[in-house]
Design goal:
InterPro entries: BetI_C, Homeodomain-like_sf, HTH-type_TetR-like_transc_reg, HTH_TetR, Tet_transcr_reg_TetR-rel_C_sf. Keywords: DNA-binding, Repressor, Transcription, Transcription regulation. This is TetR family transcriptional regulator. With about 200 residues, the protein is mainly alpha-helical. The model has no long low-confidence stretch (mean pLDDT about 90). α1 packs across α4, α2 packs across α3 and α7 crosses α8. It is built from 9 helices and no strands. The chain folds into 2 domains: about 50 residues, Arc Repressor Mutant, subunit A, CATH 1.10.10.60; about 140 residues, Tetracycline Repressor, domain 2. The radius of gyration is 19 Å and the shape is globular.
């Protein structure tokens, strides 16, 4: 393994560890030593790659986000646009342990964004990327004739807002909301706007 490959592997291991630790204990309680121990590296090596907690947090959020984006691109050229859209909407809810961890990271980011300009800028930038994912899926379906024409920007914003609202209630364990009931409402909203069947597609 080359030096560059070792460096990438070390950074990856640190970022995965940071996501796990931040999700478990919260940003305010996290210490660099905790992440170093979880990643199996020295504190000095951790500081070599990430100068402080704020930088580590920002890159951990971006890493988590990029990983989700990579998964969403799987087979993107060989499946219907409705399936791509369904994958995106499914990934925007805490539907499995990994996505629940992502949601805990988002919640930490929201809290920090209320008090910190850098965190607020990061949150807005990540939301812009989420909006782009949804918008691209809608545009693809419209261009392919799978979806009826619609206001792509407004529809994307509505779907993201529904995912946020239901996601919060799912994270809180609201007994009146399940993943299936949330997806039914979200997909029903998409179906009405796009002229597609109301049944959530198989992923």
């Amino acid at each position: 393994m080359s030096s560059a490959e070792r460096t990438r592997e070390t950074r990856e291991r640190i970022l995965v560890a940071a996501c796990e630790v931040i999700a478990e204990v919260g940003f305010e309680k996290i210490r660099m030593r905790m992440v170093a121990e979880h990643a199996g590296v020295s504190t000095a090596l951790l500081h070599y790659h990430f100068e402080n907690r704020e930088r580590l947090f920002a890159e951990a959020m971006t890493h988590s986000f990029a990983h989700t984006g990579t998964e969403l691109e799987r087979d993107a050229d060989s499946v219907p646009a409705a399936v791509i859209l369904a994958r995106i909407l499914h990934s925007l809810l805490p539907t499995d342990p990994e996505l629940r961890q992502d949601w805990r990271l988002w919640q930490e980011l929201w809290v920090r964004a209320l008090r910190d300009d850098a965190a607020r800028t990061l949150a807005v930038d990540l939301y812009d990327q989420l909006h782009a994912w949804v918008s691209q899926a809608l545009t693809r379906g419209i261009d392919a004739g799978e979806f009826a024409d619609c206001d792509v920007h407004a529809t994307s914003t509505t779907l993201l807002s529904l995912c946020d609202g239901f996601g919060i209630r799912l994270m809180l364990g609201d007994p009146r909301v399940t993943v299936d009931s949330a997806l039914a409402v979200i997909w029903g909203t998409a179906a009405r706007a796009l002229g597609i069947p109301p049944e959530f597609p198989a992923l």
